[in-house]
Design brief:
By secondary structure, the protein is mainly beta. The mean pLDDT is 90. It is elongated, with a radius of gyration of 28 Å. The protein is built from four helices and twelve strands, in the order E-E-E-E-E-E-E-H-E-H-H-E-E-E-E-H.
């Protein structure tokens, strides 16, 4: 379910289109304006378009009882992703939880801290779930609550995927005790959810699992995974009073006004 793609992100697959037992060979291409044909002359041997699943062989073959398409040399049968499963295949993913570990360091002040605060013990960590009111410092987050906090609907997002930001803000006044420097969490959706933008909405990617049978023939399962990518974004600032720069600034100000 979890597929790591890059640093500071986690991907949770919520929906999927599987193309099972693909083998390299010849098969009809998916029908569209460029691939549908009536006779062999409609197909160009060696032709590959931007969205082709393979290389055209030059033959026009039946796709089904009513449609013919140009044959391609490809992983067959070719993927058909025209219809995304709805509701999402893994609806219960909203109840999954993630533990976020974050360490910060302000080198100018030689100050470091992590989001698992010193007051948090192992017993509390095993039982807490983040809540902005009751458990604002718990580093364990329920996925459905993250999406809800960003004013989104998890089940709707789960169908075609999306990108969420889990933001950690460290705003620290180091003149106060270190216990006052604590993380503040916030959440927002990063991808564009707009009904006017219907081309390739959400978030998805493909990967394949390859196999060989006893005869050495290679096959694969092609997975088009839809899901929610959670980006962990950390930012903040820290400050501490220092009498020397303060006096320099006061002196500069007095000199500017000619006092």
């Amino acid at each position: 379910v979890l597929h790591v793609q890059e640093e500071n992100t986690v991907f949770v697959m919520t929906n999927v289109i599987l193309t099972l037992n693909q083998r390299q060979g010849r098969c009809p291409e998916l029908p569209d304006d460029e691939t549908e044909c009536k006779e062999k002359s409609d197909c160009v041997p060696g032709y590959v378009s931007t969205h082709s699943n393979g290389i055209q062989t030059g033959d026009c073959v039946p796709y089904n009882d009513s449609i013919k398409t140009c044959e391609v040399f490809a992983w067959c049968p070719v993927e058909d992703d025209c219809h995304v499963p709805k509701p999402a295949f893994l609806q219960e993913a909203e109840n999954f939880t993630i533990l976020v570990k974050n360490n910060i360091w302000y080198p100018k002040f030689n100050f470091s801290k992590r989001n698992i605060l010193p007051t948090i013990n192992s017993t509390y960590l095993k039982n807490c779930i983040y809540d902005s009111q009751t458990d604002p410092f718990c580093p364990i987050f329920r996925l459905g609550k993250i999406v809800e906090a960003a004013e989104q609907n998890f089940q709707e997002m789960a169908v075609e995927g999306g990108v969420m930001a889990l933001q950690i803000n460290w705003d620290c006044n180091l003149d106060r005790a270190a216990s006052h420097c604590v993380p503040k969490y916030s959440f927002r959706r990063l991808d564009n959810k707009d009904s006017a933008h219907t081309v390739s909405p959400g978030y998805n990617f493909r990967f394949a699992k390859y196999y060989k049978d006893s005869n050495g023939t290679e096959s694969r399962t092609l997975v088009k995974a839809y899901g929610i990518r959670f980006d962990i974004i950390v930012f903040g600032k820290a400050g501490k009073f220092d009498v020397i720069p303060t006096m320099i600034n006061i002196g500069s100000g007095l000199a500017l006004f000619g006092v």
